[in-house]
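<purpose> Linking amino acid order to shape
<body> The protein record starts here
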Amino acid sequence: MQLDGLVQREGGRKLISSIPACWQGPLVRLGIVWAAIFALTFCEWQAMVSQWWNISTYNHILFVPLIVGWLIYSRRDELARITPQAWFPGLLMLGAALFVWLVGSLAGVNTVSQLGAVLALQTSIAALLGLRVTVATLFPLLYLIFLVPFGDELVPALQMITAEMVITLTQWSGVPAVIDGVFIDTPAGLFEVAEACSGVKFLIAMIALGTLICYCCFNSWKRRIVFMVSAIGLSIAANSIRAWGTIFIAQSQGIEFAEGFDHIFYGWIFFALIVGGLLATSWRWFDRDPDDLGIDLPGAPQSNWFRQLSVGAMSGNRAAVFAGLLLAIFAFWHTAGSRVEAAVPDQISLPEQVADWKLVDYSPSVAWQPRASGADHRLLGRYRNNSGQHVDVFLALYSAQEDGREASAYGEGALDPGSDWRWLAPGTARTDAIADYLFVYGKHKRLAETSYRTGNLLTGSAARLKLANMFDRLTLRARPTMMLIVSAEERENREAAQSISDFRRSVGDQGEWMDRIARLR
C-alpha cells in the first residue's frame, strides 16, 4: 500500500511538472471557480446529465466532452507557449452568463438555464485565462454549447413536415391514402407520424456532427454552408423516406411486420448509414486535414481588434475574487426570486351561467382531462347553450411558476402525454390563445384553445408568459398565473371552432372573466 501511494504521488508530481509554470496558478484558480459554478448550477447539470443518459434524442451529447477534450489536446503544444492573463471584460461576460442562468431558472425555462450554466463555464475561461487563450481555443469553447439538450421545440413542426412528405411519397408509390394532420389513413390501417417519428433525434445529432465536420474537414465557408444545409436536408428527407417505407411495407406484409422491421432498422444503424453516405459523397471536397488542427485564429494577436480588446488585463487572484463575488450575488438573487409566491384563494369555482350558456354535467364522448401539474386549483366543466352547442372549460390557477408547476411547460395543458389523446395538427392561432386539434381512437376529434394570464397579460404565447413570469421573479413581485383551455368536440353539423368562438363572445373580456373566477377582482 505504501508503494502504491508513493507511485501515485510520484505520478501526480510528474503530471504537475508537465504543466508549464505560467499555467499552473491560472488552472488552479479556474478549477476553483468551475467548482463554484457547478455548485451554483448543480440542478441544471443534474438535469442535463439525466437527459444525456436516459433520453435517446440526447445520447450523442455524451461524446461532446470527449470531442472538446480531443480538440484542446490537439493544440496543447501551441497553448503551452501562451501565457494566461486574467481579463476584466471576461468577468462582464461571466456576469451576463449568470444572468442568463438566473432568468432561465426563475422563469422555469430549462433550455435557457442550462445554456446559462454552460456559458458560465465558457466565459470563466475568458475571465481567468484571458483573451489570447479564449481566441486560441475558440471552436472547442463554442462547441460546448452542444452540451445543452435542445430540439423538443422542433417536434411539432418536424411532425408536420414529415407527414406532408410521407403522404406525397405514399401517393406517388400508388398507395391510396388520406392525411389529416399527422395521421395517414391507408388500406392497411391508420398511421400516426408521432413524436418519435419526427426525426428530431437524428436532426439534432446531425447538426452537432455536421458542425464538427465543417470545422475539421473544410477551410472554405462556402463548402461548410453547403455541407451543413445538405446534412440537415438529408436527415429530414431520410427520416421521411423511412416513415414512408414502413407504410409501404405494411400494405403487403402487414402492420406488425412493418413495425418490427422499422424497430430493427431505425436506430443508430440508420443514422450511421446516413452519415456514411454523406461523408462518402463529400469526401472529394474536403480541403482541410483533420490532423492539422492548430490553434484558432493564429494571426489574431497582430490584429488591431485584438489589441483593442486586450485592454483590461488584471491579476489572476483579483479576477478569481471578483468571480466569486459574482457567483455569491447571483446565488442570493436566485434564492430571493425563488421564494416569490402569490397569495391565492382557498377555493374557486366556475360560474353557473355565462350569458345564455349554463354549466351542465361534464360528459365527454371520450375522457379528456388537461394536465396542470402543481397547480393550486383546477376546474373543469361543460357549458351548453340553447342552440345545443357544448364547450368544455378548464382553468388552472398557480401561485407561482417554477420547475414542476409550469403552465406552459412541455407536456402540460390540453394534451396529457399519458392519455390516449394524440396531437393532430395546429388550429387557427389567435393573439390571446394557441389552438391545437387532438385525436383519439381514429375518429374522435377535439379542438382546444389555450390562453395564459398573469397580471394584465392575456396571451397564447408560452414565451410571452415565461418572460412575464421571469420579470416578476427578477423584480421579486408576486402575481398568480392562470391557464384557461376552452375546448369543444367536433360533432356532425357542429364545428368546434364555431362553438368556441360563440362561447368566447358570450364571456366578453376574457382576462377579466378569468380574474373574477380566481377572485382577483
Remarks:
- The first strand starts at residue 178 and ends at 180.
- The two ends are 74 Å apart (CA to CA).
- Residues 348 and 480 are 14 Å apart (CA to CA).
- The chain has three domains: 17-137+313-338, 152-285, 353-517.
